[in-house]
Design brief:
Layout: E1 4-7, H1 13-27, H2 34-40, H3 46-54, E2 60-66, E3 69-77, E4 82-88, H4 97-111, E5 116-122, H5 126-131, E6 135-144, E7 147-157
Antiparallel strand pairs: 1-2, 2-3, 3-4, 5-7, 6-7
Amino acid sequence: MPAVIRELRHGEEQLFLELHAQSIRGLAADQYPPEVIDAWCVAPTEENLAGFIKNEDHELRLFAELGGRVVGLAALVLEDSELRACYVLPEAARQGVGTALVREMERLALEHHLDHLELLSSINAEPFYAALGYESEGCTEHIMCGHPMAAVKMSKRLR
C-alpha cells in the first residue's frame, strides 16, 4: 500500500513534534549520545508549540499516512532551498514512506521554480538520501541546543 502524502492540518502541530521525537528516538538513538538525542527531540511544550505554529521560516509541512495512520513527516523551506526534515516512525521504515515524502518535497520545490535542494543529514540517514540522488558535500556539525551533532551536508540538482 503506497503512502498518502498530505499537508499538515491545523491542530496537528503537537502530533508533528511527537512523531519527530519518536522517529529520532527509534531510528537514531544508536548513532548519537543521549544528550544530542534529547536536544534534537523538541518537546511539545506550550512555548515550543507556539514557535512551531508561528512558523517563522515558512516551512511547508507534510504528513505521510499508511492505512489512514500518520507515520511520517517532512518540511521544506523554499526560501533556502532546504529540505529541512524527513522523519518516519520506526515501524514504517523501509516501506517507501520516506521516499514518498522526499519525492513530494522535490515536486513542490520544482513547482516553486527551485533548481536544487540542500539538507543536513543525520549520520544514520545519509545512505537513504544518497539512494535518492543526494550527494555528500562533506561532514559537518549541527548545534542542537548547545550540543554538537555530527551531520552530513548534502544536495541534489532537480533540473
